[in-house]
Specification:
By secondary structure, this protein is mostly helical. It is built from 19 helices and eight strands. It folds into three domains: 192 residues, Lysozyme; 63 residues, no CATH class; 50 residues, Membrane-bound Lytic Murein Transglycosylase D, Chain A (Roll). The protein has a two-stranded antiparallel ribbon with strand order 1-4. Strands 2-3 form a two-stranded antiparallel sheet. Strands 5-6 form a two-stranded antiparallel ribbon. The longest helix has 32 residues.
Amino acid sequence: MIFNRNSLFALLISLLFWASLSVDVFALGLVQDKNQHHANLLDRVRSGFALILSSSSKAIRKIETPHTENPQTINHIIARSERYLFYIVEEVERRGMPMEIALIPVIESAYNPLIKSDNRSAGLWQFIPETAKILGLEQNVWHDDRRDIIASTEAALDYLQYLYQRFGDWEVAIAAYNLGEGAVSKVLSRNIHKGRSTSFRDLNLPVETKHYVYKLSAVKDIIANPKKYGIKLRPVPNRPYFDTVTIHEHIDISLVTRLANISEVEFTALNPAYNRYVIKVLDAPRTLLLPKNNKDIFLKNLETYQDPRISWKFYHVKKGENINEIAARYSTTVKQLQAINGISRNKNLTLGQKILVPQAVAENHAESAAQNKKHLQNHQASIHVVKKGDTLYEIAKRYGTTVDLIKLWNNNDDESLAIGQKLVLMKS
């Protein structure tokens, strides 16, 4: 077979590409195979360290002291990380990132996704609301994806990769993750303008940002050389802790825990993004994390479960109603209604607002309303339009009935009236 020069060149490039790709795939396979043989996930983390992080001996000693004087401090953090670390390590490896990145949550949240910070940041990776929105992390009264283990990890790694591509240096990228890319860019521009070095060590960054990188360096050294500090680190199993389940319908969290045979503490640790008692499925299915051994238990029990999956039901607020009246009507507390609906203490309800109320009570009210309607259909009734100055007592007296009966006929326990409101009144 004869090739012209261009065809031959194209063939050689193609062969070289596929050869290099094969080598990369083979090398990746070797790395993955090697990593699978680590019984302790921390050994896998150590084997992936690739950065020489800047340090200040004085700052490092200050940072290391709490961990080295009380080894339980670092071991408590490692214990918390066991639910999440395998997943993060897998993602870091898959993206070809240095394994030091997997330790950033130690600095940010001590691997506690429920931690609350003064600057409104949240989750393992401590995103502030504005950054989270830019990165596509949804935040509403039902869930906060900043605390979602998978969503926040993907966003954090995406962002760190972007920062590395922008600045070309991992230390600078990590500093920008802490301080913000805009602020770091200004510092870099000043150094370039003055003909100075743009390496991390030579940047005039705030002390807090410098210490952020120093903290990561200190934690890395403790993980890499625990014997140097007289610390015995607890091992972390090198296997997945959780598995994912896709939810297509609203469901009570209490029902999930019951069907999966796990505690609410365990559920919350794996699914800290959910803010309410109910997992509300809006435009797309939601993903739950369950301990790996409990996924099949949950799916099997869910398949055979025939009762309603939520114990709450939507209720449309009527004119003049307040949360105290609704709470009393549906045999619950104001505090519980506020909690499940994300209503602040001093906020009033609005006409037509949808809130969740206990479903069993709601169904009883609906049945009562249906009976009243049927009762009205079997009797003659008139409509009274409320005028200025009308009260239930005066209306009842005028029509020769009682206030309680008027409330019953109109399926409304509210004493207040609104001008123009229509009341059904039975004729005797």
